[in-house]
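SAMPLE LOG
Freezer: B-3
Tube label: C17
Construct: single chain, 107 aa
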Amino acid sequence: GQRRAQRTQAVENRKRIEQRINVDVGKAYRKLEQYRMLMDVAKEALAFQRENMRLSADRLKAGVITNARHDESVAAVRKAESDELQAQLGYRLAQAELEHVLGSSGD
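STRUCTURE (predicted):
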């Protein structure tokens, strides 16, 4: 009677915990993948902005654009560098979160 009810309750609790862990792992993995994609996009954007800055420097030397216009391209590179670092940080945090969830699943 009571023993059986306790066992049934324990089995149900375990199922709920396993389901919660599966949900948490899935969320953490999707977050990691999202940041991986963001890192790829940020890397491409940085490469684009660096090339744009190089071309801007050439135009500046040729006298086709002003220093202010070139400074805009330099600022765009700095912004792209910052975006790339943010994406890398987000990825590392998501990685740590996934490791935490996976580590806690064995507890």
